[in-house]
Amino acid sequence: MATTTMTMAKALNEGLRRAMEKNKKVLIMGEDVGKLGGVFRVTDGLQKDFGEDRVIDAPLAESAIVGTAVGLAIRGYRTVCEIQFDGFVYPAFDQIVSQVAKLHKRSDGVYTMGLVIRIPFQGGIGAIEHHSESPEAYFAATAGLRVVSCSTPNDAYWMIQQSIEHDDPIVFCEPKSRYWEKGEVDLESPPVGLFDAVVRREGTDVTVIGYGSSIKTILRAADTAAVEGTSLEVVDARSLAPLELDTMATSLEKTGRLVVVQEAPHMASIGSEIVAELSERCFYSLRAPGVRVSGYHVPYPPSRIEEDYRPTVDRILDAVDRVMGFES
Amino acid sequence: MIGEELVQLLTPEGERVAHPEYESTLSGEEIFGLYRDMVIVRRLCTESTSLQRQGQLALWAPIQGQEAAQIGAGRALNPMDFTFPTYREHGIAWCRGVPPENMLRLFRAVSNGGWDPQKYRHSVPSVVLGTQTLHAVGYAMGIQRDGAEEAAMAFFGDGASSQGDVLEAFVWAASFNAPVVFFCQNNQWGISTPSTVQSKIPLYHRAHGFGFPGVRVDGNDVLAVYEVSKRALESARVGGGPTLIEAYTYRMGAHTTSDDPTRYRIDAEVEVWKHRDPIERVKSLLVREYHVKTAKFDEVTAEAESMALKLREDVLAMDRPDPITMFDNAYAAPHPLIEEGRREMIELGVSGGSH
Lengths: 328, 355
Prior knowledge:
The complex is a heterodimer of chains A (about 325) and B (about 350). With about 325 residues, chain A is an alpha/beta fold. Chain A has helices at about 10-20, 45-50, 60-75, 95-100, 105, 135-140, 155-165, 215-225, 245-255, 270-280, 315-325; strands at about 5, 25-30, 55, 80, 115-120, 145-150, 170-175, 180-185, 200, 205-210, 230-235, 240, 260-265, 290-295.
């Protein structure tokens, strides 16, 4: 197995490079993706190697980045759109939900909307307003779209390639706070399918499900809980729409207790959907109600206080205590 | 009213006028072809309005008054060009070869589209205003990358000209020198909103600010629309970049069958435009210059009648779709929620379960 160590940003870069080498119809379009290599350097060096026709520095208008990618898709191209920050995706919202999501249906299956919309999402980098949001639920709620999120460099490398190859449009959420963290990347074979959830750590007492940046926090909580004698099983959802519920349900049937962790507020969220689905599927295995650990129902706070908004190890452990406390 | 800035080759009375930059290149037979197209799409439109009034369509968006704008542009296209319409481009669809009954599937509410957009090289209609202009520009960027001598043509109206997507499309087209022609039918009204509220300057002037040419053409003069469109498309195909064409016309009817224009515009205005009818002026020309006989016009009327009859039969034969078809093509690849929905519907017995 050929593995190499790299950051998530580099893994995405290598994944994009490989996808562009494999298929000449793959394009990248976004703000500052060329010479600068993107504000997070995810597309670093790609314009130099693939040219300005394939790595397109876009004028600053998100609706057009996505809208022209639709036209390119009609012409047979596969465009990876980079939205610079989560909070800047909303000008493209109509193109994403009314056009990208619906044109396969509206054309009775003639148009393939094989495009990827990359969004650096979630907080934790000390940014100013509109640079730390979690918009995934808007897209997950839209029929016609799929939403995925990577949490490791290996997943980043493979999931971006799998997303580009997929024939449905994919909103690809990248946990920006993890861009610079290193991990092992297997360059030969993908870990699992694009829409599969995976168990990141096995345990017996509580199933804790999360995605994106939350996975690292949950794993830390699991370390602490283990010291205290509670065994957490950590599941990375990876695909947020559709959810791969079998892996989650298998875990929950074993533990009987569920905690879901996300940076988004819990109202109408991915976490709410996971709790609802698993409550229905695993009702007779449940030893406590499912609990969500989320961002608060406020606009994302100034980043000097963001660590009191984002789920912390302590808040996750509190939730673990709550579900453990239901035991009679 | 609009002055010399308007490209016109045929007056409302059907007399030819010279223009310093454009001249008609069409033969009498070709002009008769445009006449035939316009008569047929007008009949298509009146039949569709009747069908809606009789409860057979959910809605209809009439094009009366805009036939010359659409047929002139539609016939200027090459077969390999690709068009991006709104819900009112029945004349363009006709020129692209879309069967009339397919145009009515959306309005019969049995489909969200209606035809194979790759087969006719005519995209599915955009109902959200202006969105299709970006698709046209993206498609044109694909043409560039393929090195093809083709063009994309985006259709929109004076109302949509206020949409951000249209203005973004202008920026993109200019920056990338995309082979696209923006064809704006200024029919003076966005439902009840007059075009003067959409723009304080003539709409075609906007192109100059974006860095490409803009032309205002008499949208009721099919000869002028044809020549202006032809030149803009040819320029786009050979690397000349985008053009904005403002076809200055008038929506003689309602916005849609749900609209009541008597609430917001005066009869006198409609009367003025009646005298500028796009079909009558071509007919006058054909009679005077080409001595076309009444019998030949009657043939076209008869052809339009039989088209309308067949359209009615085809529409009435369009049954309510099997509900299970709502799951088709929601996604390209298998999806668990689609499978779940299908399974539930089959269990409920509301469908034959043939899928």
